[in-house]
Amino acid sequence: MKPAPSNENPVLASRQAKLALYGESLFEKTIYMDCDICLLSPIDEVFDFLDGVDLLVTEDVQPAIAKAANLLRVKQNILSTLQSVGLPLNENSIQYNGGFIAFTKSSKTQELFTNFKKYFDMVVAHQNVLLLKDQGAFAAAVESVKPKMTTLSPVYNYLDKWKDVYTIDKPIKVMHCTYPYRPQYAKNVTRSLFTRIVDRTAKIFLPNQLNNPWRLK
Question: Which of 38, 72, 169, 203 is the most buried (most CB within 10 A)?
Fold first, then answer.
């Protein structure tokens, strides 16, 4: 196993690790999961699902990119803002949750990750209006490359925090953890008054996530 890309900013480092997935994987079929994911049952069938497709994804709890306010630092028209920085998105573009991605080695997938990096660089360059998130860049890469892909059920990427928005009649296989289920410590895991105040006000007093000193700790 190769080490993940390093950066003094852990948020940026986590994004760069995802960008490097295709080049760093030694396998014909790869399943990537965020480090805050817990497997609740075997998912061997995902490798079978990859037969005949380039990519497996799950939709975000807010799949419409035109409503993805979670990507913006400022309150303004979402789609036009994303388009203005160079992301080739439209009203029908989908926001996927990058916590669970499975892919095969193919020319289409390689092109997808190349474009993913290109579009994420645009996100980084426009931190005045965008948050340091990768969903917009990934959606743009999917939109531009159009790989052969399948969207999996939320049981493969279930966020407990948003359980009220799901309609699921099958056992959850992959838990994308939110409090209190996170398996690792986070900066505000104690939910103390201090950390809650810092988290609430950081976006005001420390607006740039690339240079945010709280994020560098």
Answer: 72
